[in-house]
Amino acid sequence: MLKSYKIPQSPSIIANYFLLFWVITMLFLHKANAQVSDKSFKEITGSLISKAPETYNDLDIVLKPIQRDTSLMRYFANASVKENYYAGASYALNKLGVSYRDYALYSKAIKLHEMALEAAKVNDNKEFQIYSLTMLSTVYRQTEAIPSALDCAQKVIDLAQSLEQPDENIKRNLNLSLSSIAHIYRTLGQYDLAIANFKKSIALEAELDNSYGLAMNYMGIAECLEAQSKLEESLQNYEKSKVFNEKVGSKRINVMSNLGIAHIYVHQGKNNEALQIFESILELSKDLGDMRIVSAIYINIGWAQMQNNQFEEAQHNLNKGLEIAKKYNLLSEMEEAYSFLADLWEYKDDFKKSKEFFLEAVSVEEIISNDRNRRYLADLISRSEAEKKNNQIEVLAKENEIMNLKLRRNQNTLLIGALLLALFTLMLYVLYRQAQLKNDKKMLTLEQSMLRSQMNPHFLFNSLNSIKLYIINNEKKNAVHYLNKFSKLVRKILEASSLKEIPLAEELETVELYMNIENIRFSNEIQFKIMVDEGIDTHIVKIPSLILQPFLENALWHGLSSKDGDKSILLQISRKKDGYIDISITDNGVGREVAEKLKESKILKRKSVGINITKERLENFSKDYQNTFKLEIVDLFNKQGAASGTKVILHIPTI
């Protein structure tokens, strides 16, 4: 199906003439042996498509010298369709159809003319519709599809008469349709009706001063008169056809007219004159490429030679014509050749061979008759199926219209439903976004709280005081050492606070720095040790950032700060079961019960919020894993039952 397309406006007359002058100049410059180079023709095609002339004459004046070149016409047709230039496509497709028709490739010709007609319909180009229908009528007539030929011819007449001011080219196509109807009557043997229609067409062609159309119509009348055995009248019309053809120089009309004249000469016994004409047009017919004409000339040469008793030469030429007819399945020529060969062998007194050829002629004649009937019937069936299909399309169109009415009736309901659904979806999205924002806000609050707990003012103040003490005591080496550790710890805390999770190795490095700084205030009395079980890669295991510091801080300030003697903290990492990493922090402090009593007795109570923040962060962290975190706090006792420390165990999910 060709796409609909709006043809660009026609160029001005001056621009059109300039284009045509340029293209013709290009043709003459690049034409060699009637062929145009690919480069120049691409330029011609591009220029024509850009100007987009819409009439047959504007295209024909440029492309006429190369319209018989099927390769160039095919290129122009494809380029025109690609650029939505359907007037050019219709012109080229029709010219391709004419070329295939002349080579008796009728089915391909019909397909091309139908495509040309469809292209013309896309932009409602009446001129090219009429031209396409005229060409279709001609092909149908030549294939004896009489109903279709008449139908196309009648459509041409109807379209032409519907136009208020048909141009010259449309009038010519109208005349061709009248001529086509005349040829159909001739095919049916209705010679008087055929002659009457040829004469109508001649009168109209004379008004247009169309020598080609006049030559064709006079030749048609001559063929009808010859069939009626009115030989002298037939000769007169053939001569008129030749006279008008001298103005146009059509090789086909020249060959056909001379063939008709020579044929009559044989009937009149002027065999030598006939042979001279036959031999003079034989090579011309080969140039045309129409093998039907070539076969007919060989057969007629053989017939004329047979009348001159030149039996060997006649047999050779009759067999030559028969061979071509068989090769191209030209049934009428085959029947004529067999008939003449039967007569030839009868002249030679070989009645057996004569009978064989006679039976062959009868057999082919039956095939022709059956084939004609079959074509006629097939054409009727095809037209019937086309009408049936059109009726089905109309029924489907009505059903589709009914369905559209029902759809429109329910349109409001569907629209309201769609709006409600969209509103409901929007509400769900808003609720989801609110929940997400609430969660993000909570996470941000936790991160800020976590950072505040890590950057505790007391811790910062005390750490800086400790470093200041080293400076006062002139312990520069220790001061620089711990100042470096302090700055590194602060940097790590700030970096980690922006991350949701970090490798365990990074966390261990951070808490080790923290413990080193805190240990200054404990006069380095605290023994801090980190143990990692074999098989655990701390660079792969991920944990929430800065998650261990609050537990170490509790161990220091609640467990060890009030204890005398040996002080230690052990941080151990182990894999207890699939999907979990256990991190335990064990101190040998006074225990939770004693620590709580001591806290109550202090005037300045140290408020610890790190543990609660850590629990909330762990809950959010475990949402991305199949397993959930677990926090376990174990009070430790010695053999005498006295508190000997606290152990905090974190079960961190890894899957």
Task: Sum this structure up briefly.
The protein is α+β, with helices and mostly antiparallel strands.
What best-fitting shape do the alpha-carbon axes yield? rod-shaped
| Structural class assignment | alpha+beta
Percent range of helical residues: over 70%
CATH superfamily assignment of the domain at 438-653?
A: Histidine kinase-like ATPase, C-terminal domain
- Sheet with the most strands, sense and barrel status: 5 strands, mixed
Q: Mind telling me the CATH class of the domain at 438-653?
A: Alpha Beta
CATH architecture annotation name of the domain at 438-653: 2-Layer Sandwich
Got a strand count?
9
Mean pLDDT: 80
Fold-level CATH name of the domain at 438-653: Heat Shock Protein 90
- Please count the helical segments: 25
Low-confidence stretches: 1-36, 603-607
Please give a structural write-up.
The chain is an alpha+beta fold. Among the domains are: 10-112, no CATH class; 438-653, 2-Layer Sandwich (Heat Shock Protein 90). Helix content is 72%, strand content 8%. It is built from 25 helices and nine strands. The protein has helices spanning 13-30, 38-51, 56-63, 70-82, 86-102, 106-122, 126-142, 146-162, 168-187, 191-208, 211-227, 231-248, 251-267, 271-288, 291-307, 311-327, 331-347, 351-409, 411-454, 457-472, 476-497, 504-521, 549-560, 592-601, 610-621; strands spanning 31-32, 35-36, 501-503, 526-532, 542-544, 567-574, 580-587, 630-637, 643-653. It has a five-stranded mixed beta sheet with strand order 4-6-7-9-8, covered by helices on one side. α5 (86-102) packs parallel to α7 and α8 runs antiparallel to α9 (168-187). The longest helix has 59 residues, at 351-409.
